[in-house]
UniProtKB/TrEMBL annotation:
GO MF annotation list: pyridoxal phosphate binding; transaminase activity
CDD domains, sorted: AHBA_syn
Name of the protein in its database record: dTDP-4-amino-4,6-dideoxygalactose transaminase
Similarity section: Belongs to the DegT/DnrJ/EryC1 family.
UniProt cross-references to PANTHER family, sorted A to Z: PROTEIN RV3402C, TRANSAMINASE
One Pfam assignment: DegT_DnrJ_EryC1
PTM annotation (N6-(pyridoxal phosphate)lysine): residues: K185
Active site: K185
């Protein structure tokens, strides 16, 4: 019998019997978007669950990133990471901002604060770090740098839903944080995103920008965009919140099984787990080191042959794409640790519906890569 294919992520779906009454309510109300009751309830529920003051919902995280930069009137140069999904830097280009790439920390693969400080010029206006794989950035050091040089900080927190530190939600750091609710994420609304902000005045500006810049029926104050989340997606989000804690528990169990099984495999290195309280296991990245019998790409292909579709997150680097590689900061020699991560990292299947039997298939290939 052919075994079913295994993918890195699998969207978590709410029970259909819970969703149908909500769908019927939306259907009969005829209010499908434009800040309806489900939208309002979802924003409030997220504030309570995440422990943040204000949430602005969006149709997706890319539009949210573009809008976050507009909301803070960012221009000039912004220091960011080459080791991320392309939306991080694309949002800068959409705003006419020059990305300045800085190398990453070898362990966390987040922006290296020392590199940030060295890259600051008179044209630098902000820092756009990523909590890569849900691992918190060095927020204290980034805040120190931002305060010293009078820079804004916007965190791409696409991977960081529910991540907490002893000080509280990681989303409360920086001027703004941007979440993704895409179907591949820990928490999803199929498509969606959000901006986390600190005060009501900033939330008002963001809400205006995501609705074409309208203040009222006849007044437009900014060249905004249509970034509003629909009632359908907001209802899905409310349902997902009912089940997210259990999903996070299961993901932790999956991560622990991987760590135990791979502990003695020479040449495979799991990333440090970090404190158990507040981590979300958004992905399960491993490094494939030179002493392993196969290269990273060789292992990637061997897994595919076994019906296991791992992902090389993030390869190639953003800085290698045509629209970025001409930048001085995009030179490979400037980003050795990011280049190394892009060559070595492989993300294994990680989701709340990955049962132990399917996970064992993955582990068997990793343990004995020269057999099928």
């Amino acid at each position: 019998m052919t075994e079913r294919p295994l993918y890195v992520t699998q969207p978590q779906l709410p029970p259909l019997d819970e969703f149908l009454p909500m769908l019927e309510e939306i259907w009969h109300s005829r209010q499908l978007t434009n800040g309806g009751p489900f939208h309002e309830r979802f924003e409030q529920a997220l504030c309570e669950y995440l422990g943040v003051p204000h949430v602005c919902l969006f149709t997706n995280a890319t539009i949210a990133l573009v809008t976050a930069l507009q909301a803070l009137r960012i221009g000039g140069e912004v220091i960011t990471t080459p080791y991320s999904f392309v939306a991080t830097s694309h949002a800068l280009l959409w705003n006419g901002i020059k990305p300045v790439f800085v190398d990453v920390d070898r362990v966390t693969m987040n922006l290296d604060p020392a590199g940030i400080e060295a890259a600051i010029t008179p044209q630098t206006t902000a820092i756009l770090p990523v909590h890569c794989y849900g691992q918190p950035c060095d927020v204290a050091e980034i805040e120190r740098i931002a305060d010293t040089y009078n820079l804004r900080v916007i965190y791409d927190a696409a991977h960081a839903f529910g991540v907490r530190t002893p000080a509280g939600s990681i989303l409360n750091h920086g001027d703004l944080s941007v979440l993704s609710f895409h179907a591949t994420k820990v928490f999803n609304t199929f498509e969606g995103g959000a901006i986390i902000c600190r005060d009501a005045k900033t939330k008002q500006r963001i809400d205006q920008l995501k609705n074409f810049g309208f203040v009222d029926e006849v007044t437009v104050v900014a060249p905004g965009i249509n970034g509003k989340m629909s009632e359908f997606n907001a209802a899905l989000g409310l349902l997902q919140l009912r089940h997210i804690d259990r999903a996070l528990e299961v993901r932790e169990q999956v991560a622990q099984r991987y760590r135990a099984a791979l502990a003695g495999v020479a040449g495979l290195q799991c990333l440090p787990a970090g404190p158990s309280q507040g981590r979300n296991n958004a992905y399960f990245p491993i490094r494939v080191l030179p002493r392993y019998p196969l290269s990273r790409d060789g292992l990637y292909e061997r897994l595919q042959e076994s019906g296991i579709f791992a992902r090389r997150y993030f390869y190639p680097l953003i800085s290698s794409f045509p629209m970025y590689r001409g930048l001085p900061s995009a030179a490979a020699g400037h980003l050795p640790l990011a280049e190394q991560a892009a060559r070595e990292v492989l993300c294994l299947p990680m989701h709340a519906e990955l049962d132990p039997g399917d996970q064992q298939r993955v582990i068997d290939v990793l343990r004995d890569p020269l057999t099928r």
